Amino acid sequence: MAKKREDYDVVIIGAGSAGLTAGIYCGRARLSTLIIEQGLVGGLITSTQDLENYPGFPDGVGGEELMNLFYKQAKRFGCKFKLTDVKEVDLAGDDKVVHTFRNEYHAKAVIIATGVKPKPIGCEGEAELIGKGVSFCSTCDANNCIGKDVYVVGGGDSAVEEAMYLTKFANKVTLIHRRDQLRAAKSIQEKAFECKCLDFMWDTVVKSMTGTDCVTSMVVENVKTKECTTILPGEGTNDFIVFPYVGLTPKTQIFEGQVDMEKGFIKANESLETSCPGVFVAGDVRVKTLRQVITAAADGAIAAVEAENYILSR
């Protein structure tokens, strides 16, 4: 069956804070704009309960709430949305083509804002237990933590914030970190150390997990002493839950060979144009030093304005 063709000025791949902001700017410029998202509109930040460092919200704001506002604004300026997977792209020519299962979308410019996904620990047994006691979304699985021991692996902002959030549900939360101090922002650390229900396991890495339909044991190793310890479920329970927050992997596989990358992240100039003319990148998926909602939004604005300039110059 032949695919249905639709034509746009700009196709944005990804509907996180970068993609939505790009949509707002493209829409205001009266460019016909399509935003394609394979998962949840809003991206990873929707799982954050309390975002304290986004300007304009002195009392903080939930990630989902903020992204809903972004989404409504993009819709207001005429952006169309398709919730589907992008199967492949052809970006080399003047006519950019984005293929989904049933449709092909043609555009004069493309903005890549696919974002990142959580990186697994990589230990033995983890892959088999994803969705069975290993979770990458505290908001999604918080209710499953009630009355259980919970282990959060990592030491950055996300790991510490999610560990504090999970203390509202779990019997006990322990944060496992490979170093002897956290990498999270000082303000977040201060709150964490004041949290009475949060314990810390320093200088420690996870070596393996076991279980069939749930996590029933976990072996951790002290990186300094090399001593290994087996963790078992708490008293009165048969399992525990593990949340890895050890890093991020860019979602760029479909763009390999079409734009220049560095360790999977897409390279761009100051105008956020990639090595392929007419293709721009915004947000966490690009090579950058700071990955935050506000920097992703800034990227989206720049990429949209430069995409408009590119179209007008043709």
Automatic annotation (TrEMBL):
The keyword Transport does not apply. The keyword Flavoprotein applies. InterPro entries: FAD/NAD-bd_sf, FAD/NAD-binding_dom, Ferredoxin-NADP_redctase_2. One of its GO terms (molecular function) is oxidoreductase activity. It holds the Pfam family Pyr_redox_2. Transmembrane segments: none annotated. Keywords: Flavoprotein, Oxidoreductase. It comes from the Bacteria. Residues 8-300 form the FAD/NAD(P)-binding domain. This is Thioredoxin reductase (NADPH). Coiled coil: none annotated.
